[in-house]
UniProtKB/TrEMBL annotation:
SUPFAM superfamilies: S-adenosyl-L-methionine-dependent methyltransferases (SSF53335)
Name of the protein this chain belongs to: 16S rRNA (Guanine(966)-N(2))-methyltransferase RsmD
Name of the top EC class for this enzyme: transferase
Species the sequence originates in: Candidatus Scatocola faecipullorum
GO molecular function, one term: 16S rRNA (guanine(966)-N(2))-methyltransferase activity
């Protein structure tokens, strides 16, 4: 696993040999960033990205390498992502790590323009996590949200999000949503 583009292109990232962590494949991550690059209205430096169920943190660190203003990573087990964050000592001020259960978040001190969510497959965590992010104010209105699920998994989209499109990458399906407005329970 490596950083694909930007200031840290080629930097190798730690990936544990565990079935509990399933990083998004490099090729899928590259394809998603190509889609993001063509759909963002401004330079990466105008965006703050939130990586939820962050695992290794590869998605957020890729955004950081491409120039994101800031990234935040949330996972209840931060051991893998902290090893990777430590590889970026010059970027400490742009990286926030939260060891937190995504389903019981505190209110956010800042709002994010982009969301990447890669919950464990087929456990029904994505929908309640989307609701929690909305309820606790973690996303800016209009935020672009990428939600990775297993390709046959059905995601019930909360009313405060609009479906945009979806893509299949091997066993993964990435659903693109737009955060519309406040929490809907």
């Amino acid at each position: 696993m490596r950083i694909i583009a930007g200031n840290y292109r080629g930097k190798k990232l730690f990936s544990p040999e565990s079935d509990k962590v399933r990083p998004t494949a490099d090729r899928a991550r590259e394809a998603l960033f190509n889609i993001l690059h063509s759909s963002l209205e401004k330079d990466w430096s105008a965006y703050k990205l939130l990586d939820v169920f962050a695992g290794t943190g590869a998605f957020a660190l890729e955004a950081l390498s491409r120039g994101a203003a800031a990234v935040a990573l949330i996972d209840k087990d931060t051991r893998s992502l902290e090893k990777n964050v430590a590889l970026f000592p010059k970027e400490k001020e742009r990286i926030s790590v939260y060891r937190q259960n995504v389903l019981s978040l505190p209110p956010s001190a800042g709002r994010y323009d982009l969301l990447f969510m890669d919950a464990p497959y087929n456990q029904g965590l994505s929908e309640p996590a989307l609701r929690e992010l909305a309820a606790k104010g973690w996303l800016k209105p209009g935020a672009l949200c990428l939600v990775e699920v297993e390709k046959n998994e059905q995601l019930h989209i909360p009313a405060c999000y609009e479906w945009q499109e979806e893509r299949i990458y091997g066993l993964a399906k990435v659903i693109f949503l737009k955060y519309v407005s406040g929490p809907q329970q």
